[in-house]
Write a structure and sequence with these properties.
39 residues, mainly alpha, 90% helix, 0% strand
């Protein structure tokens, strides 16, 4: 892992972070929408 992190360009790391954040936000939105729909 250490070697890959050193070789990986920063923009790839940033992109991965954005994708992860988007996935988390999407999951939260789906949960909230489900709760609102249920109520």
């Amino acid at each position: 892992m250490g070697v890959n992190e050193a070789v990986t360009p920063s923009f790839l790391t940033q992109t991965t972070g954005v994708i992860g954040t988007t996935a988390i936000l999407d999951t939260l939105i789906q949960r909230v929408s489900a709760e609102v729909t249920t109520e």
